[in-house]
Structure formats: structure tokens, C-alpha cells
Write a structure and sequence with these properties.
Strand 1, helix 1 and strand 2 form a beta-alpha-beta unit. A two-stranded parallel sheet has the order 1-2. The longest helix is centred in the middle third of the chain and has 14 residues. It is an alpha+beta fold and 43 residues long. It contains two helices and two strands; from the N terminus they run βαβα.
């Protein structure tokens, strides 16, 4: 299965990172879209 995850910033980044880890562990194909604000929060 292919899954698209979007990160726009704010507190949802913490949840998105955990979701991405779990999807990766399951071997899912992941497409990630990150806004400029999302990038700032990820750092």
C-alpha cells in the first residue's frame, strides 16, 4: 500500500513522526509532503 502523509507544522509533527516510524516498520511505501512551517517545526 502507498500512503501519503502531510506535515504542516504545529503539535501534529510529533504524531506524524510516530506514524511514519510505524508505517516504515510495517514496510509501507510512504510519500511525505512537508510545508515550510512543518520543516521549521521538525528541526
Amino acid at each position: 500500500m502507498e500512503i501519503v502523509v502531510g506535515i504542516t507544522g504545529a503539535s501534529g509533527v510529533v504524531y506524524a513522526v510516530e506514524l511514519l516510524k510505524k508505517l516504515k516498520d510495517r514496510g509501507e511505501k510512504i510519500h511525505l509532503i512537508v510545508s515550510e512551517n512543518g520543516e521549521k517545526v521538525l528541526r
